[in-house]
Structure formats: structure tokens, C-alpha cells
Design goal:
This protein is of the alpha+beta class. Helix content is 45%, strand content 20%. The chain is rod-shaped, with a radius of gyration of 44 Å. The structure holds 3,4-dihydroxyphenylalanine.
């Protein structure tokens, strides 16, 4: 390299730059180095201006020497810039990475409500026994909720249903259904026997909510109409369903009772582990008046019906202390099921 004496110190620069590049931390610091050694105020830029003042004989060689130094520094800085850029990009990718497995762990999956689960299982059990699922409206008329079910206007049983009436039409003629039994009537009106249905759904009464009552609750109704149906078929059906739902250990029994829409009528109980009995629902042989009300000849067709609370069933199955837990919507409770 042929630098004139006055520019001799430029020869130190490449080594100085190499030392700084070896220790450079990031792209910002690299920009400072770039401007210090190649910028307007750098010694190399100043040297270019000095070239005009040196002997023309030496100028060309000196100019080439200054350019070589400059090109060497530029190349060294470019290599360092590539290295730092690659490192910065890798760090950014790492920081912005989406870890999909972490995300999956953080999201909590919901589940069906306890009562929906119980209802689905009940439907499955009955469908497995050959029943189909029927539905009816939640707002009913007195004909479907009472009259067709053999509960005329004067009948004392009307009072026992604690009905919530809707302010529509004649007084006490439109109501929130107080049981799922009206779906029996709707089904028999529109379907030719044989009939094997269950009808789950919401029901309403003027009850105040407490540990064992809800004003809006769920029932499931069963109805079988066929030839030669007896009380034995009813008992066997209840027994099969209880075994399928609660397991083989649980026993069932029928106790004589009274419902206007069945004759004879019974209540059915299931056994608890300690040997005591728990009332589950009502049932019986469909009353001939009910069959007649739906245009079915009681001499040709017989049937049985039953009904019970789905919420109560869930309370029993999961041994809840308070039925209101089912409607409090406390996720800490709901998450357990
Ligand atoms: N509907 C009755 C109630 O809500 C339950 C019931 C009893 C339904 C006997 C029936 C039955 O189908 O045969 O209390």
C-alpha cells in the first residue's frame, strides 16, 4: 500500500475496525461504526479531500490505497451486518413464535349441562329399548294439559298442579304446561297405534325455588300403546330403564297411587345403597277415557304411561345437596360434570 507520509495513520484503521466489529453487539452499534469510519466526518472521507493537495505523482497510488482501505472496511461491515441481521431475525422469530400446544392447553373446553347430559342419556336408554322421542309446546291449552288427561274443570287434581296461567284468551285456558303428559295426548291424536314414545321437556309450576324445588324444571314422559299391554310390561320397562341408567344394583318397586289419567296408578321407587326407597315418578295404565279422548278404542288398544323429573334424577345420580345448583350457573360447579 502506498500512502503518503501525511496519511500513514490510515493504515491503522482496518485493524481498529476489525477489533470493533469483533465486539459489536447489535445493528445499531454497527451503524455507529459504519458512520465513524466511512461517514462524512470519518478520516477516510477527509483523506479523499486531502488527495487534492498531495503531489500528483503520488496521487493515483494514494487514491487507490485509500479506496482499498475503504472497500476492505465496507466488506467487513457488510459481513458483520449479515451476521447480526440473521441473529436478530432468529430472535424475533423465537419471540413471536406461536406455540400451538401451549394454546391448546390454555383453552378450557366446555361441556353439556348436567341436566342436558341426563336427558341425553335417558333418551339413549329409551331409544335403545325401541322408543322414539316426541316433543310438544311449553305453552299449552287446558284441553291438553288437563281435560284430555281426564282432569275436568271441577276436578280437585287441577289444584295440585300449581299451574302458571298465561294471560291469554279465556281465564285459566292457556298455561305453561305443568307436566309433560300433554305430549301423550298430542301424540295419540296424530299417531296410529302402536305407539312407543318418550317426551322430555321443560315444565313449570308456581313453586318457590328451594333445595328440592324449581319453578321451571324438566320431566320425561313415557307412553306405550299397543295390543295386550299389561301392568307387567310397565313394571318391566321401568326396571330395565333404571338398570340401564343407574346400574344393575338398583332395585325398583311400584306403590299404589292415584292419577286421573291412569287406572290403576302407581308411584315407582328406586332402592338406595342403604336399602331405603326413593320416589322417582308416577305411572299407570292409560285410563280408557284418555284413549277415547284421542280417538283410540280402549277395547282394542291398551297402554301404560309414566313420568318423572329429570332434574331430580340428576340430583339423585350425582348426590347434589341442593337442586338450585342446576340453575345457579356457577362454573365451578358446572365444570365438575
Ligand atoms: N304427570 C305427572 C306429574 O307431573 C306424572 C305422571 C304420573 C305421568 C303418571 C304419567 C303417569 O304419565 O302415568 O306429576
Amino acid at each position: 500500500m502506498s500512502l503518503p507520509a501525511e496519511m500513514a495513520e490510515l493504515e491503522q484503521i482496518p485493524a481498529e475496525v476489525d477489533a470493533r466489529l469483533a465486539a459489536v453487539a447489535d445493528l445499531d452499534e454497527l451503524a455507529e461504526i459504519d458512520s465513524a469510519y466511512l461517514g462524512k466526518k470519518s478520516a477516510l472521507t477527509a483523506a479523499k479531500k486531502q488527495l487534492g493537495r498531495i503531489d500528483p505523482e503520488q496521487r493515483k497510488a494514494a487514491g487507490r490505497a485509500v479506496n482499498e482501505i475503504r472497500a476492505g472496511i465496507e466488506a467487513a461491515i457488510a459481513v458483520t451486518r449479515d451476521r447480526l441481521s440473521a441473529a436478530a431475525r432468529a430472535a424475533q422469530l423465537e419471540a413471536e413464535r406461536l406455540d400451538l400446544t401451549e394454546t391448546r392447553e390454555r383453552i378450557r373446553r366446555g361441556s353439556y349441562h348436567l341436566v342436558t347430559q341426563a336427558r341425553d342419556r335417558l333418551e339413549d336408554v329409551f331409544v335403545g329399548m325401541g322408543f322414539t322421542v316426541a316433543e310438544g309446546p311449553e305453552v299449552e291449552t287446558a284441553w291438553y294439559n288437563f281435560e284430555a288427561l281426564n282432569i275436568p274443570e271441577w276436578h280437585p287434581a287441577r289444584g295440585s298442579f300449581d299451574t302458571i296461567f298465561v294471560n291469554l284468551g279465556e281465564p285459566e285456558q292457556v298455561m305453561l304446561r305443568s307436566h309433560t303428559s300433554p305430549v301423550q295426548i298430542r301424540t295419540m291424536e296424530t299417531t296410529e297405534p302402536p305407539i312407543y314414545i318418550v317426551a322430555p321437556g321443560r315444565t313449570f309450576r308456581t313453586d318457590t325455588a328451594d333445595a328440592t324445588h324449581l319453578p321451571a324444571f324438566n320431566q320425561i314422559e313415557g307412553l306405550v300403546i299397543d295390543r295386550g299391554i299389561t301392568m307387567g310390561d310397565l313394571a318391566g320397562t321401568i326396571d330395565s330403564f333404571v338398570h340401564a341408567f343407574f346400574g344393575g344394583e338398583v332395585k325398583t318397586r311400584l306403590r299404589p297411587s292415584y292419577f286421573p289419567f291412569t287406572e290403576p296408578s302407581a308411584e315407582f321407587d328406586i332402592s338406595r345403597p342403604d336399602g331405603s326407597w326413593l320416589e322417582l315418578g308416577g305411572c299407570g295404565m292409560v285410563h280408557p277415557n284418555v284413549l277415547r279422548n284421542c280417538g283410540i278404542d280402549p277395547d282394542e288398544w291398551q297402554g301404560f304411561a309414566f313420568g318423572f323429573g329429570i332434574d331430580r334424577l340428576a340430583v339423585m345420580r350425582y348426590q347434589l345437596d341442593d337442586i338450585r345448583e342446576l340453575v345457579n350457573n356457577d362454573v365451578r360447579f358446572l365444570r365438575q360434570f
